[in-house]
Structure formats: structure tokens, C-alpha cells
Amino acid sequence: MHHVVLERWSQGASVMHRRDPRAKIAALMVFLVVLATAHRSLPAFGLALLLLLSAALIWARLPLFSALARAAIVLPFSLVFAAVCWLSGDPGRGFALLLKSYLSALAVLLVVATTPFPALLRGLEMSGAPRFLLMVAQFLYRYLFVISEEAQHMTKAAASRGATVRGFMAGARFRAAAGALAVLFARSYGRAEDIHRSMRARGFLGRFQPFTALRFRGGDAVFTLFASLAPVLLRAAVERGV
Amino acid sequence: MHIPDGFLSTPVWATMDVAAAPAVGYIVRRAQRGFDDSRVPLLGVMGAFVFAAQMINFPVGIGTTSHLVGGALLAYTLGPAAASVVMCAIIAIQALVFQDGGILAMGANLINMALVGVLAGYLPFYLWGGGRWRKLAIFAGGAFSLLASAVLALAELLVSGVPMPASVLGVSLALFMVSALLEGAITLAVIQALETIQPGFVRKPETGRSFALGAIGLAAVLLAAVGVLAASTAPDGIEKLGLQTGIASHVRSLVTTPLTGYQVAFFQAGWLRKASAGLAGLALIYGACLLIGRAVARKRSA
Amino acid sequence: MPPLIEVRGLRYCYEDGTRALNGVDFRLERGETVALFGANGSGKTTFVLHLNGLLAGEGSVQVCGLPVNRRNMPEIRRKIGLVFQDSESQLFMPTVLEDVAFGPLNSGMSREGAVARAHAALQTVGMSAAAAKAPYHLSAGEKKRVAIAGILAMDPEILVLDEPTTSLDPPGQGALAELLVRLPQPKILATHDVPFARALCDRAVFFQGGVIAAQGPVEDIVLRFGWELAPERSKLQR
């Protein structure tokens, strides 16, 4: 599963992993904006950014080709639009779509693969995102796989009871799928009640106490500076016609 | 539809990010209902449910399947504010963990799916879900939630200059319609199954809502959506017409949007015209939803 | 010496009207380990949820001399360490360490103090190596031990475990028994697992129809209610 691999990657110990999440988030935003607003010399700029990200991936001791492949998840969607652009006589825009969507996804992957999810959320919280929303995301992530597994069991059970009948049985299968979803809903709701009960049993008084401690150090400032400058300088260089 | 980074033009994604920030802050405060975190586990777990639910395939004949998107279902069970927050969390995780949807584009995705989508889904239910038309209201809500978010996304892409020949546009809209009807059907089926298991799960809106208010509200949202779409495509249409009459013999029917050179020449005026028309339309939808939301909230507290 | 737990005349009805508890009297003395037996739906879990005030019925429940009410709740919930049947819903934080530190943090301890307590508790249950792991990746036995650590970190007076051997394989059950025997706190085990109860418990009570029908040594209760669960091949009719 994709996010299991991501979890494993994020537990690494490279210099990049040890950087404060806020430094990485800031650098990511600069990268994304510099990329999004670029319109000239895109092939050269794209290549430069690809090399930059690849270098960062290697520095972070992540498997380069695995990461490059995972970011390619955006490509099917972008390819459709790129094809439409090409057929509409604007191949430049199509190429830009492919390039920008892929490089953006790769940059996000780099940050998420070098930052454990709880630390990432804490970094977002300290950068101003609403705490309540981030806590919801934390719980969502915690139970994502648990409930997905329950859903998988249900679909397998249904399939083994002959739910692969096609055609005129579609109506009954439709209702059966709806029933399965309703059961999954009820179970999930019940699980949420169990969780809340278990929280109260351990003295929960209504507010989650902050746990992950983040300390923005000199090294993080240096990282933010260099990581933010890199795409800017590359773009300037490429557009001035190196 | 999750828009990746690189598709939207800078004015569009920037505007959507600026618009989304206070909107999300507002909806989070509403969903929190006070200063404590008691609802966090429920919203988080139901978000995980929606993710998992997207794995369950609904057969729709001729060997195809569809799956639930879930905004309307969440709104009918958890309430619209909580549903919006859950959708926000889902969109954030999809973008960060699965690289499905961009980061700069997240404002647009949040507005499309978590805010407008949920509100468009909840409105029919809120207005007519308490009476004889309950089933239709639920079906319509499911359909509208998907339709509204898809149409908005399409409009944003068009305003950004992503070319969409009439044929592609037509096919996209047709696909959206089909997906919307399916979402309506699946949402209704699941709500009915839920009511059999435990009626308490599904909210019961009051009966006797003003039909007129509802009709006007919905018409406003729909007109705005259609208006945005029309505004986004109209400039293209005008230019298409000009191009065809000018170089008719060289232009195949498929290649109808402006050529690169043509676009450079008209860059200033064309871009500005498209952008302002589109953005005005988006502002109209946003405003309509905000007003309707306020009216709903006022009625509720009255 | 007053009993650690004293329950008198406990009655409780669910929202739909079913009477779950119909006048339960129960005492837990110091140093005891008591088994709660009874069929599914006999009220064992409902009873257990009253001990730390998660449910509130009629009658009186006293823990260490304190009546279970809103005012005493934080103290009660520290004294009673309740381990739920489903560990997946009990370990709700992103990492093992954060989950075990949850209890101490809620009682107002500093972050450093809570982390220290958490590490100590994890050591007691033998799960120190898993501190940075996500609970999802642990086995059922490991999750149960972390859940117990989460309770131990609060320094409870009494441990209450609801069906602790659910989903544990035989080696897991053995490891859990070994752990529980080493913990000094008196314990209440609501369980279907008769061999487990035999190994750990001094006495048993039997829930039936919302009351405690009988209590006594584990073996006596098992014999009296025919509560032996292992079917014997020779005795099965074909």
C-alpha cells in the first residue's frame, strides 16, 4: 500500500529527515510557487528542477527511482489534458501541464517522505492551519487502513457469495453494496464511540494536549534559505538563457 | 475531481486559496461547536469511512461500476459543517499522502468539494428532506453535490485557459451528469439501508420549508454555476467563430480553440476578459452559497 | 479495611428500555483477582463501564471510598485502569509513545513527565522497542500490551480488563497471563476464557439476567454453571 511505503520512508534518519517540518513546508511552498508561475524556457527549467529534486531525494537517502515512479501517479490525469491541448493546437500548454503537475507531485512526495505524519501535522499547526482540522486529519489517518481493511473483507465476503453475477442482477447487487456501506458506516460510527469512551476512561477533559515538540534551529534556517533560493536561482539562470 | 498543481493559472489558484482560508476557518469553528475536541474522533473515523467506502463498487450495468464520493451522505448524517470539515481533511490527506490533488490548487479543491459540494448536497435535503419528497431530496442532494463541484472545477480550468473544444466539453458534462445521477442513487440507497439499521443515524429536517425559498436558492446556485461555465467558454466561442470564418479551410472541426500565436496577440484583452468573467461568476456562486448558508443558519437559530 | 470497590443495588436500563443490570451487589477486596463470567449480554461489560463512571445507573458505586460521581470523576478514572476489549479503538494516537503518554498528559503532568512515565510503563510490559511505531503495525498481543501500558502509566489502583484474550493466539494468551501475574494491582477480568481465569483468579462471580447469580472459587462457579468451554471429541454426538 502506498502510504505504508511512505511511512517507512518517513522514518529515515538523513539530514533532511531531521529538519523541522516548518522549514520543509516553507521551502516546498517557494518551490511550488516558482514552478507554477514559470512560463518561459520550461523544458530547461523542468529539467533543472528534476535534477534538483533528484539530488534532494538522494541526499535524503530515499530510493530514487521508486520515488520518481510514485510521483507519476498524477500523469494519467495530466496526459488526458495534455492530449486535448495537443489536439487543440497548443502542445506547449500540454507539455507545461505534464511538467508542472509531475514536478509538483514529486516535491510534495519529497517533503512527505522525509517527515513523519504527526510531525508534519504539528508543523502545519504551528504554521497557522486550524488545529481542530488537523486533529481530524490525524484520526482519519490513524483509522484509514483499519477501516479500509474492514471494507476489503466485506467486498471479499460478498464476492465469494457470488456477487459477480452480471446483468439483470445489478439491481440486487446495487442494494447489497448499499447495505454493505451502511453496515460499514454503523461499524465506523460504533468504533468512534468506542474511541471516545476509551479517551474518557483515560481522563480526557475535552482538549488534546500538544505532544510533538518542534524546535526550529539554525540548521533549519540554513536549510530553508538554501532550499528556497535554489528554484529561484535556477529559474533566473534558465530564463536569462544559460 | 481533484485538480493537480500546474493546471490552474496563478490568478485562479491564488484567488481560491485566499477565498478558502477564511471559509475553512469558519466551517471548522462551526463544526467544533465550542472549544473542545470531543467531535474529533467521530469526524476522523467517518473520514476514514469515506475513504474506505470508495473501495466498494456499485454495479451500474454493462460491466461498469461506480463508487460513492460521500459529501452528501456525510451532510445527512453528521450535519453540513461537520461534513465539510471531514471533506477538508480528506482532501488534505489525498493531496499530501496520495499526491491526488495539488497543494497550491488545494484552495480550489476545498471550495469545490468540501464547501460548495457539501452545501449544494445539503440544500435539497434541508429544504425538502422532512416531507413527502424526502427520497427525491436525498437523490437530488447527492446529484447536486457532485454536479456543483465538477462544474466549478471545470470552470476553474477553463478560466485558467485549459483548452476545451466543444466536443470535449460536451463529453465532460455528460460524464458529470452520469456521475451525479449515480451519486444520487448510491447516496439514496445507502441512506435507506442506514435507516433500516438505525434510524437515528440520519437527520430529520423540519417539514414545511418554504418551497419558494428553496427553489430560488437552488436556482441561484445552478444559474451561477451555468453562468460561470458560459462565461468561461464564451470568449473561446467568440474567438472560435472569428478563426473559423477567417481561416475556415485550414481549421478542422476539432481544433477550435485559439492557436498559440493568436493567443499571444490577444493576450492582454483576452486573458483579462476570460479571467474577470470567470472570476465574477465564481464570486457569484460563492456569494450565493454564503447568503444561503446564512439564511439557513438564521432560520435554524430562530 | 474498606473494600476497594463496593457496588450496591446497581440498576441500569439502555435507551431502548432493555434492563441490563437489575440490582448488582459486588465487592473487590485488596489483593484480589476476580473473574466475571456470564453469557454474552448478561451485563458484564455494562457493569464494568459503571466502575469508572462511563455509564451511570441507579444504586451506589464506590471506588476506594469515593462515590462515583462527576466531582470525583478525574480521580476515579485515574484509580480504575480500564482495558477495553478492542485494542484498536483504545490505541487511538499516532504512535505508541504518544498513546501511552495520553493518560498522564490529561492529568496535568508536564510533557517530559508524561513521556518518562510512558517509557517506564512500556518497559514494564516489554514494549519499549515499539515506542515510535504506529499502533496499526502491531500484532494483537502487542496492541494489548501497549493498551495495558497506557493504563499503567496512570498509576492505577485497580485494573479492569474486558475480554482481554479476544483475538490472542495461545502463546499470546500465555504471555498476557504472565504479564498480569507480575502486576501488583488487584484485578477484575471479564472473560469467557475459563483456563485464563483459572490461572489468574482467586474467585469468580456469575452474571445472569442482570444480577450476580452466584460467586465463589473459580472452579465451583465453572462446575455449577457448566461453564467449561473446551468441547471434548469423545463427548460430541455425531
Describe the secondary structure blueprint for this structure.
The complex is a heterotrimer of chains A (242), B (302) and C (238).
Chain A: H1 2-10, H2 21-36, H3 42-59, H4 64-71, H5 75-87, H6 91-113, H7 117-126, H8 131-160, H9 170-201, H10 218-239
Helix pairs in contact in A: 2-6, 2-10, 3-6, 3-10, 4-6, 5-6, 7-8, 8-9
Chain B: H1 10-32, H2 40-53, E1 58-59, E2 65-66, H3 71-78, H4 80-98, H5 106-128, H6 134-159, H7 166-197, H8 211-247, H9 260-265, H10 267-301
Antiparallel strand pairs in B: 1-2
Chain C: E1 5-13, E2 19-28, E3 33-38, H1 44-51, E4 58-63, E5 66-67, H2 73-79, E6 80-83, H3 87-90, H4 96-100, H5 102-106, H6 111-125, H7 140-152, E7 158-162, H8 170-182, E8 187-190, H9 194-200, E9 203-208, E10 211-217, H10 218-224
Parallel strand pairs in C: 3-8, 3-9, 6-7, 7-8
Antiparallel strand pairs in C: 1-2, 1-4, 4-5, 9-10
Molecular structure report:
The complex is a heterotrimer of chains A (242), B (302) and C (238). Chain A is 75% helix and 0% strand. Chain A is mostly helical. In chain A, helix 2 (21-36) runs antiparallel to helix 6, helix 3 (42-59) runs parallel beside helix 6 and helix 4 (64-71) packs across helix 6 (91-113). The longest helix of chain A has 32 residues, at 170-201. The two termini of chain A are 42 Å apart. The mean pLDDT of chain A is 91. With 302 residues, chain B is mostly helical. Chain B has one domain (10-301): Arp2/3 complex 21 kDa subunit ARPC3, CATH 1.10.1760. Chain B is 74% helix and 1% strand. Chain B is built from ten helices and two strands; from the N terminus they run ααββαααααααα. Chain B has a two-stranded antiparallel ribbon with strand order 1-2. In chain B, strand 1 and strand 2 (65-66) form a beta hairpin. The model of chain B is unreliable at 235-271 (pLDDT under 50). Chain C has one domain: P-loop containing nucleotide triphosphate hydrolases (Rossmann fold, 3-Layer(aba) Sandwich). Chain C has a six-stranded mixed sheet with strand order 6-7-8-3-9-10, with helices on both faces. Chain C has a four-stranded antiparallel sheet with strand order 2-1-4-5, covered by helices on one side. In chain C, strand 4 and strand 5 form a beta hairpin. In chain C, helix 6 (111-125) packs across helix 7 and helix 7 (140-152) packs parallel to helix 8 (170-182). The longest helix of chain C has 15 residues, at 111-125. The N and C termini of chain C lie far apart (55 Å). The mean pLDDT of chain C is 93. Chains A and B meet through helix 1, helix 2, helix 5, helix 6 and helix 8 of A and helix 1, helix 2, strand 1, helix 4 and helix 7 of B.
